[in-house]
């Protein structure tokens, strides 16, 4: 589809065409193709799962200088193009702040929102943003914050490596993966979905990845405390890519947020938890989408 300002967005949906619409906002690097439950599973649960490539990823044109809050306009454009009025939204990892932006700015359209293994704002008051974070993420986000052009120059060849061999990204991260993460990425089905989404993410350019990191290193453009729709925050206690302290900070500021903390899980466990989170979004289950309820704030 084409946005009002002339950009291309590549959109895909799976599941029941008459089912409850849910937007799935991908991670970094990521794309519209997953990971996600199979279409038949979604159909059985009467869910229509809608995803799109954020600008610069996959088949979507770049949007220079975009911020997290800019993603809200693209979600609205996709929903309008598909004839969707009200919808739920879930974001994983870098997609989580974009899901929260939709919850904050679209209370008349968003029914529920879930943020899985997400980050807190870079300017979060009282949060040691880098504490507990893997060294690779610390280096990338610091570079993005203080030297955006240098960060882009660094990421371009890394993107090219992954374009030619998507498995290279998993190998680059392997030393920092917990045992739980290694179990997830070693599962043949999960690994296949991850490699597919990584390859599609950088198929055309590195700029989706670059612009995502730059957006996360700057102010988001909205206040989490302004959210008034039901929100689920799902996190693994052992996550080193998005430390659990980020979820705890958000839980203390989003009114009524349901915070679910899985004690033994890490970052990639969100892929396992997604079906239950979708159930919470669609069915309104107050039980908390599995795991252990940490606290409601």
List keywords for this structure.
disordered C terminus; globular; 297 residues; alpha/beta; single chain
Folded structure, characterized:
With 297 residues, the protein is α/β, with parallel strands linked by helices. Helices cover 40% and strands 15% of the residues. The chain has helices at 39-44, 71-81, 95-105, 135-146, 148-164, 167-173, 179-186, 188-201, 207-216, 244-251, 270-283, and strands spanning 11-15, 20-25, 47-52, 87-92, 110-116, 231-236, 258-262, 292-296. An eight-stranded mixed beta sheet has the order 1-3-2-4-5-6-7-8, sandwiched between helices. α4 crosses α5, α4 crosses α9 and α5 crosses α9 (207-216). The longest helix has 17 residues, at 148-164.
Structural class: alpha/beta
What is the oligomeric state here? single chain
Q: Average pLDDT, to the nearest integer?
A: 95
Radius of gyration, in angstroms, nearest whole number: 17 Å
Shape: globular
The counted number of beta strands is 8
TL;DR?
The protein is an alpha/beta fold and 297 residues long. It contains eleven helices and eight strands.
List the helices and strands and how they pair.
Blueprint (H helix, E strand, L loop, with lengths): L10 E5 L4 E6 L13 H6 L2 E6 L18 H11 L5 E6 L2 H11 L4 E7 L18 H12 L1 H17 L2 H7 L5 H8 L1 H14 L5 H10 L14 E6 L7 H8 L6 E5 L7 H14 L8 E5 L1
């Amino acid at each position: 589809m084409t946005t009002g300002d002339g950009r291309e967005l590549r959109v895909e949906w799976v599941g029941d065409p008459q089912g409850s619409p849910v937007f799935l906002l991908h991670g970094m690097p990521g794309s519209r193709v997953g990971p996600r439950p199979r279409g038949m599973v979604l159909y059985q649960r009467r869910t229509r799962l809608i995803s799109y490539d954020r600008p610069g990823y996959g088949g979507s044109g770049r949007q220079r200088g975009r911020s997290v809050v800019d993603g809200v306009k693209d979600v609205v454009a996709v929903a309008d193009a598909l004839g969707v009025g009200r919808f739920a939204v879930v974001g994983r990892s870098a997609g989580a702040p974009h899901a929260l932006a939709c919850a904050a700015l679209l209370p008349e359209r968003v029914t529920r929102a879930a943020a899985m293994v997400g980050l807190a704002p870079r300017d979060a008051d009282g949060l040691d943003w880098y504490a507990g974070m893997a060294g690779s993420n610390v280096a990338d986000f610091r570079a993005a914050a203080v030297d955006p052009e240098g960060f882009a120059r660094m990421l371009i060849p890394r993107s090219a490596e992954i374009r030619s061999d998507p498995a290279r990204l998993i190998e680059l991260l392997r030393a920092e993966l917990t045992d739980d993460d290694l179990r997830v990425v070693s599962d043949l089905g999960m690994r296949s979905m991850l490699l597919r989404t990584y390859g599609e993410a950088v198929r055309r350019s590195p700029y989706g990845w670059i612009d995502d990191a730059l957006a996360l290193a700057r102010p988001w453009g909205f206040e989490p405390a302004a959210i008034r729709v039901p929100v689920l925050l799902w996190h693994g206690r052992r996550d080193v890519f998005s430390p659990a302290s980020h979820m705890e900070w958000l839980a203390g500021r989003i009114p009524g947020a349901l915070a679910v903390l899985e004690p033994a899980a890490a970052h990639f466990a969100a892929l396992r938890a997604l079906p239950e989170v979708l159930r919470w979004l669609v069915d309104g289950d107050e039980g908390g989408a599995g795991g252990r309820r940490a606290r409601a704030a």
